[in-house]
Design goal:
By secondary structure, the protein is of the alpha/beta class. It contains 16 helices and 14 strands.
Length: 432
C-alpha cells in the first residue's frame, strides 16, 4: 500500500442520514457509502490502505492526497503563479465617466466629458504592444455609462480587433451597462465589436428599481420595463447577459416575486445576486440599508433554494473574484483621463492610480518600476494571514476581495462561508 492522508480541504456534512463530503480545492461533492467511509476512517488512523478503484477515485477527486504533499504550499505556489503569469492584457476602459442615470448609491458622481482622441490612440498602441508580444487582449467597457460614448466603443473596437487578427491573438470584450440605451441598432453594432457579454443591474421589483435607478435629467420615466426589453433583445441577438440584482434590506424581500417575473419573461437563469456594500463616501441612510455578510449569505442560500424548487440551475459559490483583475499582473482599469488603476473601486481617485497611459513610453516596462499602489495590489496575499492559512475554504476564497480586505487590515471572508453546509446539502439534493 502507499501512504495517503485526508485532504485538509475536506468538509463533511451530515444530511438525511448520509455523510456528504465536499472538497474546496477540487469542488468535488459526494455522498459517501460505507466502503468510502471505511477508507477515510482508516486513513485518519494512519493505517496503510491497499490500492483499489475506490481509493484511486477518492484520490482523483481530491478527498485523499499523498502523504508527502503539502496542500497549502501547493496552493500558495499556484496562487502566485497565476497572479504573475503574463497571460494577456486585461483592460477595463471607461470611455466616459458621465451617466444618464443618477443612482443614489453611485460613488462616481456626475463627471462629464469623454476620452480624448489622443488617449484612445495611446490605449490602442498599448494593446498593440501586448498583441505583438503574443498576449491576448481582453476588454471591458465600463463607466459612467459606456453607451453614452458608443462611437468611441465602435471605433476603438474596430481597430483593436484588426490588430488582434493581424497578430493572431485572441480578442474578447464585454460591457457593464445600465441597459437603458441598449436598443436593437446598438446591440448589432456591439456584436460587430465582438462584445459577447453584458452585465446589467436591477434594483429589485419594478417599483423599488424605478425609485433608485432614475434618469439623471429629473424625468421620472420608469426605467425597469425598458431595461428588460433591451436585455431580451441582447439575449435574442446572441449576447450573453448577466443581470445583477442589488440586494439590500429592502430588495431581499423581493427576490421571489422578481425571480418569478423574470422567469415569465424568459430571463430566470440570467439573474445573480450582488451584495451592495457601503464605502466611506456612502450616506448614513444608504449604509444602514446594507446587509451584513452573514445576512447576505442567508439570503443567497435561500435564493438558491428557490432556484432549486423551480428546477433552475443552482451555482456553486465559486467567487467571481477568481477573475478579479486587481489580482493579475497585466490587468488595469483606465478612466477617461488615462489614469490606470488596479481596481474599479479606485477609478477616478487619482492618488490610487498605478500610472497614466499618456506618459508611458514603453509598455513592457510598466512592471519594471511599479509605484506603491501597483505593488500593494500585487503583493497582498491571503497566505500572510493565519486565519486564511488555517481555513478549510481558502482554495475557493483566496482571501476574498482585497480592496475590502486592505481597508480593514485583514481578509474579508466570502459571505457564503457562513452557509457552506447549506450549499453542500443543496448541491447533493440537486444531483439526486
Amino acid at each position: 500500500g502507499n501512504s495517503m492522508k485526508e485532504s485538509k480541504y475536506n468538509i463533511a456534512v451530515e444530511h438525511n442520514g448520509q455523510c456528504l463530503l465536499f472538497n474546496s480545492r477540487t469542488i468535488a461533492t459526494a455522498a459517501l457509502d460505507d466502503s468510502a467511509l471505511d477508507i477515510l476512517e482508516r486513513v485518519r488512523y494512519g493505517a496503510e490502505i491497499e490500492e483499489s478503484e475506490l481509493v484511486n477515485e477518492m484520490k482523483r477527486v481530491g478527498f485523499l492526497v499523498d502523504d508527502s504533499i503539502d496542500e497549502l504550499q501547493q496552493l500558495e505556489m499556484n496562487y502566485n503563479l497565476s497572479k504573475y503569469s503574463k497571460n494577456g492584457l486585461g483592460l477595463v476602459i471607461a470611455p466616459t465617466m458621465a451617466c444618464n442615470f443618477a443612482c443614489p448609491y453611485c460613488y462616481e458622481g456626475s463627471q462629464k466629458g469623454v476620452m480624448s482622441a489622443d488617449l484612445q490612440e495611446k490605449i490602442i498602441s498599448m494593446a498593440e504592444a501586448f498583441a505583438k508580444d503574443k498576449q491576448s487582449i481582453n476588454i471591458g467597457w465600463f463607466g459612467g455609462e459606456p453607451l453614452l460614448a458608443k462611437k468611441i466603443i465602435y471605433s476603438m473596437s474596430k481597430r483593436l480587433i484588426e490588430i488582434c487578427e493581424r497578430e493572431h491573438v485572441e480578442y474578447e470584450a464585454r460591457i457593464v451597462t445600465n441597459g437603458y440605451l441598449l436598443d436593437e441598432e446598438t446591440i448589432l453594432e456591439l456584436k460587430k465589436c465582438k462584445i459577447t457579454f453584458a452585465q446589467i443591474t436591477l434594483d429589485g421589483l419594478p417599483e423599488s428599481h424605478n425609485k433608485k435607478r432614475k434618469l439623471r435629467n429629473g424625468n421620472d420615466e420608469p426605467t425597469f420595463d425598458r431595461i428588460i426589453e433591451n436585455t431580451l433583445l441582447a439575449k435574442e441577438n446572441g449576447i450573453d447577459v448577466a443581470i445583477r440584482v442589488n440586494v439590500d434590506k429592502t430588495t431581499q424581500h423581493e427576490l421571489e416575486p422578481l425571480l418569478d417575473l423574470m422567469m415569465e419573461k424568459g430571463l430566470g437563469t440570467e439573474l445573480y445576486l450582488g451584495h451592495v456594500q457601503a464605502n466611506t463616501d456612502s450616506s448614513k441612510e444608504f449604509a444602514e440599508n446594507c446587509l451584513s455578510s452573514e445576512d447576505f449569505a442567508e439570503v443567497y442560500v435561500n435564493y438558491e433554494k428557490l432556484l432549486f424548487a423551480r428546477r433552475l440551475p443552482t451555482e456553486y459559490p465559486v467567487p467571481d473574484r477568481m477573475n478579479c483583475g486587481a489580482d493579475y499582473l497585466y490587468s488595469y482599469v483606465v478612466d477617461a483621463d488615462g489614469y490606470l488603476y488596479k481596481c474599479w473601486n479606485d477609478i477616478g481617485i487619482k492618488t490610487e492610480s498605478v500610472g497614466n497611459v499618456s506618459n508611458l513610453e514603453d509598455f513592457s516596462k510598466i512592471t519594471q518600476n511599479p509605484n506603491s499602489n501597483y505593488c500593494k495590489y500585487m503583493t497582498w496575499t491571503p497566505f500572510a494571514f493565519k486565519k486564511c492559512r488555517e481555513c478549510k475554504i481558502l482554495p475557493i476564497c483566496l482571501g476574498g476581495c482585497q480592496y475590502n480586505g486592505r481597508s480593514i487590515g485583514e481578509p474579508v471572508c466570502e459571505n457564503w462561508k457562513y452557509e457552506l453546509e447549506e450549499y453542500i446539502k443543496l448541491k447533493c439534493d440537486a444531483a439526486q
